[in-house]
What we know:
By secondary structure, the protein is of the alpha/beta class. The protein has one domain: SPOUT methyltransferase, trefoil knot domain (Alpha/beta knot, 3-Layer(aba) Sandwich). Helices cover about 40% and strands about 25% of the residues. The chain is built from five helices and five strands, in the order βαβαβαβαβα. It has a five-stranded parallel sheet. α1 (about 15-30) runs parallel beside α5 (about 130-150). The longest helix is centred in the C-terminal third of the chain and has 19 residues, at about 130-150.
Amino acid sequence: xxxxxxxxxxxxxxxxxxxxxxxxxxxxxxxxxxxxxxxxxxxxxxxxxxxxxxxxxxxxxxxxxxxxxxxxxxxxxxxxxxxxxxxxxxxxxxxxxxxxxxxxxxxxxxxxxxxxxxxxxxxxxxxxxxxxxxxxxxxxxxxxxxxxxxxxxxxx
Length: 156
């Protein structure tokens, strides 16, 4: 059975996001072992300086690296990433034997060095979404990809 880990910076504040994500995680049990790992968001209070933000991203990246499953396919969720259709994402999963690890940064994004270490940079859209909504959207798309690969009708 496939293993999917979503490492995210910061946690939900709104219960409805958590409920929506939980529904897809429940559905995913039929296809994979899906887990989420929360990394504490580093504080950028005091100044909105680029230097402070870069230091925070670097500390978050170090914490993220410690949680990436060994040998995993690493996918950075970032705005400059490649946009895939649902069937194309299913194709990424289709013959993958390694654990799959998605990484979602804070509202400031991800450290550039961490993104360079990833196997794929993936973008959900050219539009901007709250990073907490990205977890729900990602869980749904992972479920859709597994449904496609398993011949289920959900994806239509």
